[in-house]
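Appendix B, Record 12. Input sequence as logged:
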Amino acid sequence: MAIDPSMIGISLKEDDGLLAIGGNDNSCSLWDISTIQAPKLRFILPHDAAVKAVTFCPWSKSLLATGAGSKDRKIRFWHTKSGTLLDEIQTNGQITSLIWSTRYKQIVATFGFGDIQDPILITLYSYPKLIPLQQVRSPTPLRILSAVPSPNMTSICVAANDETIRFYELW
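Logged structural output:
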């Protein structure tokens, strides 16, 4: 399997031998790599824009979350064994990162281009109800480019378009 440089979101679920790859082709491909010498394409998961945010749920064996760009602005939740779309939520901006909590049934999303009047940088959602629990707003049109969790999974570090990194304690 060759990795195309236009692919922009990757997540690995080692214990199940699954690899999810998002890309500029407006889809996320889900691969079975349990036999790395012979990877098998399981599903193509469609979106309406490039897929940058891809993450497997740490506490559910068959749940994948994906997030797409400015022309889509949706977080989608997929059943990895069947490729079925379980749910989706419309957001106010392109999704740049998705991070599941390991302690709570929650997922955090970061946003790039979005609502200029009321820029939302980060939203923490409950799962499966997808109720916003916390939001971080910006007085200026700031964009989050990417985010990673802290080693203890209590906070996230984000990189912003103003060449700063910021830390947010969420859990």
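DSSP finds no helices and 15 strands in the chain.
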